């Protein structure tokens, strides 16, 4: 199993979404690969939040790359 999150943050900003993803992953003690693709407002801030989280988050630039990385994480 893997979790793939694909977000286009138009109304909701990517940094807010990234903070929510990090908090949720820590609360539930996520044990499966987490692949995240963010696009939209404050995407750079969102990616930085994911990088600084201390979690093994796999970042992707687009949905195709995210899907490939999710499958690769399962092997």
Automatic annotation (TrEMBL):
GO terms for molecular function: nucleotide binding; succinate-CoA ligase (ADP-forming) activity. Pfam families: Ligase_CoA. Residues 1-71 form the ATP-citrate synthase/succinyl-CoA ligase C-terminal domain. The keyword Nucleotidyltransferase does not apply. Heterooctamer of 4 alpha and 4 beta chains. GO terms for biological process: succinyl-CoA metabolic process; tricarboxylic acid cycle. This is Succinyl-CoA ligase [ADP-forming] subunit beta, mitochondrial. Keywords: Ligase, Nucleotide-binding. One of its GO terms (cellular component) is succinate-CoA ligase complex. InterPro entries: SUCC_ACL_C, Succinyl-CoA_synth-like.
């Amino acid at each position: 199993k893997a979790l793939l999150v694909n977000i286009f943050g138009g109304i909701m900003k990517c940094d807010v979404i990234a903070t929510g993803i990090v908090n949720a992953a820590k609360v539930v003690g996520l044990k499966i690969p987490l692949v995240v693709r963010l696009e939209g407002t404050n995407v750079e801030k969102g990616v930085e939040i994911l990088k600084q989280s201390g979690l093994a988050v796999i970042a992707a630039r687009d949905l195709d790359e995210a899907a490939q990385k999710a499958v690769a994480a399962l092997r």
